[in-house]
Amino acid sequence: MLDPLADNYQHWSPYNYVTNNPMSIIDPDGRSTQSFATRYTDPNGNTILNTDDGRNDVYMVGWDKIQAFKDDIRNTLFARGRQGVNNIGWNDFWRGEFNEVISEKVLNKAGYSTLNREDTKAAQVKAIITGSFDDNKSFYSKLLYDRWSDPVLVSGSLIAFGDILVRPIPSAPSSAVDVYAKLPYEQLQKISKVNSSELNDFFNSRGKVKASEHALRAYREMARRMLNGTFPKRVEAGSAAMQYLRIQEINRALKN
Hints:
Elements: E1 37-41, E2 47-50, E3 56-60, H1 66-80, H2 82-86, H3 88-97, E4 99-102, H4 104-109, H5 118-130, H6 133-148, H7 151-165, H8 174-180, H9 185-194, H10 196-204, H11 213-228, H12 237-254
Parallel strand pairs: 1-3
Antiparallel strand pairs: 1-2, 3-4
């Protein structure tokens, strides 16, 4: 029988039960893995508490309620231990006080249930909430440790990163190549550094905040050198994936 969700797990062997993570994941019908935990974060995306209450979504605690929530966590842990904060009734009360910011569907699509380490899961949630470059960079860094900590996950990680890294490097148009491709790396770095503020705003807003064409073209050429092997320093896989996405963002902004 064909698994209707097989496309969601292409980098896993069909004989690999619950993506090799039976401690925190179940697979009740043989199709999709499930990891049940209500996570609570502050408005900046930082995890306050991760529970095991049988549900899988993320709720944001407003600044005005954080202290009361933390006090109740401390009191509940003291009186009942982890069983208290994992209790469905306890979570029903607090879920009613806060807003859901990431649904189970979004978490599953992002591969949340395949992550092993708690710090990696927390980093992914924060990156989804803020969408910032720095938080995504932090998540990619932790993802490498998460995957390489388990030998069985190594092949899946290589394929996941390879899906991005083996794609053709986006090329710049000939007019840009004539100017920026001939600049030394130090000059490109200097241009990017001088314009770092507007570049950060551009990337953090996913292109909604404009940056000068000069800064974007210089950064794109520098990023291309990171991917084609002419960058002075070794580029980690997580950083390489991010640079590829940045080049795409710049191409969309420059429309070429």
